[in-house]
Structure formats: structure tokens, C-alpha cells
Task: inverse folding
């Protein structure tokens, strides 16, 4: 189905006032918030920004072929001065999602859609879900931190380089339209708290949504943890989703299970807690785990998690429940989960002998603690060496907590640079080191400015049966230093230092330093 709607029709349907002579018949075939990516026939969504109004770039959008602009009263004159028809709306950011959905003829309604939110686990759950569905023969797409990839009905895989965890709403709708045209059956999306506040996932009613957990992160954006939780919880409402899956391991999940405005099914890794699915046993099995899960009514089933650790056991159960919500259940679905394999940059195994080398995206205190605890529990682990840091221009309060977590759970802590962005890397390291040195632990602590040098030191210090965790950046292929993204991949660097051969190509596209 080709995109397109006349400006007058669109204005009426989103409740906007149409300004400009002969504007009614303008045909809109696409939408964009970025004047640099506008193409002929696009609706340019000129939104108010933190530093400059998008209407300041309306002339650039018009020259690129925009057919109309969507803006507010503050941007109206700048847009009309270009000669573009203007759709005037009091909340153009919110309206841009609905506008893009209408331009693309509501593509989400032509797919089964799954949304996953939570501080940690979004990428793992969506990627495992996609792998399991592909194993079941269902053409599936995933949109999130690691980019966007989808399979069409003819078996062809398509990749789109996206940077944000959840792209802007016009991009989300355009990607869903591409999936629908290709014959993709299911679209799985990571839905960040930013996405909910900024209306990026509006105009989609997900068939199923999932909450994984909540821990401190993004307090540079959300004033408090309550605001952070409210953003996540807003996904569990009839205007956004039909049914939910909620992990009740933490208090936030238990609150959500009680307050959700849609039907939810709950799960937990705590055998003493009540839920619709309770993990009663986790038995390590190689670099994975065999689970026993008690269902409502007392039935117990077996399920294999393809990665080790309690949090990946939880992810496997989340995927099982999401599959059931969209019509895939039983032994075949559970077998597909067992074959789902690793997730790029999430507890990704780089080397097994003589040193266990792992790269993980853990960039919060909670995620780092879980990753270190998981690796400590791997049979035959001797010393645990962690390379870690913290990102610049992000929540500073979590830096000492991450340093403390590393010192309490690892034998050797190497504090280095993550994505310093515009901040002084030495100042970031100092805040992390403050927490590491304050920990009542006997960890050996090093400060190494260059990330490559830090990984080299970890490999030099490691002996047979030691484990190295390189934490924080996961599958990112760039490092943001002073606003410039330099090529850097933790996995390639660790592989090179340990002299390990590279694996077969990933099914997910590479991506630069992510905007977390």
C-alpha cells in the first residue's frame, strides 16, 4: 500500500488548522522531524526543541521538497514564510506520531506488534523473541538499540541503521510501513522511557507489551525515579497496548502489575513469590541454563535459557509469555527459545579458553551487578576481571555506585573511558573510582584512560580460568569522544587481544555509540 494523504484530510483528522493558500490538495507521502532527511512530498514536523525551534530549518526542508509543515504557534510564521502549507497544532510532537501513521495508512495495524520496556533487558528480550519467531518460520523484525532488521515474506533480510533505542515517531511509522510492505508478520520494538514521554511510540496499539525491571538510570532526563517509572508504566494502557507481561521481581514491577490498565500476566525468578509463571529452578548448563517454571494451576514445564544468569532466565520466560500472547505456545515455542542463541553485545561470549572473555552492555549499577554475579557463578571461574567506566553527559549520580558494584563483585577492576562525550574523561573516571575505593572490598583497582589500553591490561593480567568482562558499550561500534564518534568495538578489541577468530556475521547491523 503506497503512502499518501491530502493535507486537508490530514489536518482534519489530527485536529490541526490548515494555513496557506491552495494548501488543501497538497499530497503528503512521508514525514520527518529532521530537515536534513526531508524528501519530496514529506510533511516536515517543525517541533520546539531544547535549544532551537525546528521551524528555524523550515526553509531547508522546503528546498528539499517538503510538501507541508506541522508546527505550533511559535513556529508558524517561520514556516509560512517559506511558502509551505502549514498544519498548526498546539502539540505538534504528539500530533506528528498520528500524522505519520495516517500518511503510511496505519502500518502497525497490518502487523502483530510487541513492545518491551524496562531499564535492562529490552534488547535481549526483543532479539530473542525475533530469533525464536524466525525459528518458528514467522518473518519478524526488531527495532531497538542495536538498529533495525526485518525479514520479509520472501525470506530476504533488510537492515536499517537507526541510532535511538526507539526512533522518532515518523521514522517508526515509516519502518513499520516498510515491514508491512515486505510481508513481515511481527514487529518487536524496544520502547524507552524517552519514547513514551516524547510520543515516539504513539499511534501504535501493541498486541503485547513487556516490563522487565526498573533501576536507576536516565535521571538526567527524568526528575525522579517516580517520573521514570510513570513513563514506563504509561505503556500499559489501552491507548498503547492490548495485553501485558510484567516481571514482579522488583517493587516497581509489582506496582505496575497492580496499576496496569490492561490485562497482564506476571512472572518471577523468586520461587517464594506468587506469579503466573514462577522460575523454581535454574541449573547452569554450559553457557546457558536449564529452568523449571511453575505455571498457574501448578503445572511445571522445562525451558532452556540460551545465556547464563538469573536475569537471562527471566528474559527467556518473558519471551515465552510474549510468544503465547501472540499465538505461539507449547513445546515448539519453548524449543525455539532454547535455540535463540546469543544477543550481540549482551553477555556475548568472545572466548572460552584459556580465559573466558565476555562483552556486555551493562551500563547501570543494577546491570553491572547482575552481569558480575552471573559470571562469578559460571563453573570453574577463578578470578573475575572487569573493564568498566561511565558515559558522559548522562546521570552522574550512578557513577560512584557503578564503581562500588565493580569493586564489591570483581577481583580486578580496571576503570576506563566509556563514551565521555563532551565531558572531561578524567573527571568521569574520578567519580567512578571514588565509589570503587569506598567499597569495603579487596579488589585490585587500576585506572587506565584509553579503552584499548584498559582491555590490553585486562588480558595481560588474566591467567588460565580467569574471566574478563568488558562492560558498558556492548555491540557499539563507535566511541563518542568530544562529540566525535571514533571507530571502536569492545568485541573486536577483546578478540584481538585474546587472539580469538571472529565469528560469523551477526544478523543485526553495526551501530555507533548509542544515545543512552
Result:
Amino acid at each position: 500500500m503506497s503512502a499518501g494523504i491530502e493535507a486537508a484530510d490530514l489536518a482534519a483528522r489530527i485536529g490541526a488548522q490548515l494555513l496557506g493558500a491552495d494548501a488543501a490538495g497538497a499530497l503528503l507521502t512521508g514525514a520527518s522531524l529532521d530537515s536534513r532527511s526531508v524528501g519530496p512530498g514529506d510533511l516536515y514536523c517543525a517541533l520546539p526543541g531544547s535549544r532551537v525551534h525546528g521551524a528555524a530549518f523550515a526553509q531547508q526542508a522546503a528546498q528539499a521538497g517538503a510538501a507541508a509543515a506541522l508546527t505550533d504557534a511559535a513556529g508558524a510564521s517561520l514556516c509560512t514564510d517559506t511558502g509551505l502549507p502549514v498544519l498548526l497544532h498546539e502539540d505538534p510532537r504528539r500530533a506528528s506520531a498520528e500524522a505519520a501513521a495516517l500518511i503510511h495508512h496505519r502500518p502497525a495495524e497490518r502487523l502483530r506488534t510487541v513492545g518491551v520496556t524496562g531499564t535492562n533487558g529490552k534488547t535481549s528480550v526483543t532479539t530473542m523473541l525475533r530469533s525464536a519467531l524466525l525459528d518458528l518460520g514467522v518473518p519478524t523484525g526488531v527495532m531497538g538499540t542495536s538498529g533495525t532488521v526485518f525479514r520479509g515474506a520472501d525470506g530476504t533480510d533488510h537492515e536499517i541503521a537507526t541510532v535511538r533505542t526507539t526512533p522518532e515517531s515518523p521514522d517508526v511509522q515509516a519502518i513499520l510501513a516498510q515491514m508491512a510492505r515486505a510481508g513481515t508478520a511481527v514487529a518487536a520494538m524496544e520502547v524507552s522511557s524517552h519514547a513514551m514521554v516524547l510520543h515516539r511510540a504513539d499511534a501504535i496499539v501493541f498486541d503485547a507489551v513487556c516490563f522487565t525491571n526498573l533501576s536507576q538510570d536516565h535521571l538526567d532526563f527524568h526528575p525522579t525515579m517516580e517520573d521514570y517509572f510513570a513513563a514506563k508504566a504509561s505503556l500499559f494502557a489501552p491507548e498503547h497496548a492490548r495485553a501485558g507481561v510484567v516481571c514482579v521481581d522488583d517493587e516497581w514491577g509489582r506496582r505496575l502489575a497492580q496499576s496496569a490498565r490492561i490485562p497482564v500476566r506476571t512472572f518471577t525468578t523468586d520461587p517464594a513469590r506468587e506469579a503466573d509463571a514462577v522460575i523454581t529452578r535454574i541449573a547452569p548448563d554450559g553457557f546457558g541454563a536449564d529452568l523449571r517454571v511453575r505455571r498457574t494451576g501448578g503445572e511445571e514445564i522445562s525451558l532452556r535459557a540460551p545465556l547464563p544468569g538469573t536475569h537471562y532466565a527471566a528474559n527467556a520466560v518473558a519471551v515465552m509469555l510474549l510468544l503465547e500472547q501472540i499465538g505461539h505456545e507449547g513445546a515448539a515455542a519453548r524449543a525455539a527459545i532454547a535455540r535463540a542463541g546469543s544477543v550481540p553485545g549482551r553477555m556475548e561470549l568472545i572466548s572460552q579458553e584459556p580465559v573466558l572473555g565476555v562483552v556486555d552492555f551493562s551500563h547501570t549499577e543494577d546491570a553491572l551487578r547482575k552481569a558480575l554475579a552471573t559470571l562469578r557463578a559460571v563453573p570453574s571461574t577463578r578470578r573475575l576481571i572487569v573493564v568498566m567506566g561511565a558515559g558522559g553527559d548522562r546521570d552522574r549520580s550512578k557513577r560512584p555506585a557503578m564503581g562500588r558494584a565493580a569493586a564489591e563483585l570483581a577481583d580486578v577492576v580496571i576503570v576506563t573511558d566509556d563514551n565521555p562525550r563532551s565531558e572531561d574523561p578524567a573527571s568521569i573516571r574520578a567519580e567512578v573510582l571514588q565509589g570503587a575505593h569506598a567499597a569495603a572490598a579487596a579488589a585490585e583497582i587500576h585506572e587506565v584512560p584509553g579503552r584499548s589500553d584498559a582491555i590490553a591490561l585486562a588480558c595481560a593480567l588474566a591467567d588460565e580460568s580467569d574471566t574478563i568482562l568488558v562492560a558498558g558499550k556492548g555491540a557499539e561500534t563507535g566511541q563518542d569522544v568530544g562529540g566525535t564518534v571514533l571507530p571502536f568495538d569492545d568485541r573486536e578489541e577483546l578478540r584481538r587481544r585474546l587472539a580469538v577468530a571472529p565469528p560469523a556475521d551477526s544478523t543485526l547491523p553495526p551501530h555507533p555509540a548509542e544515545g543512552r
The two ends are 35 Å apart (CA to CA).
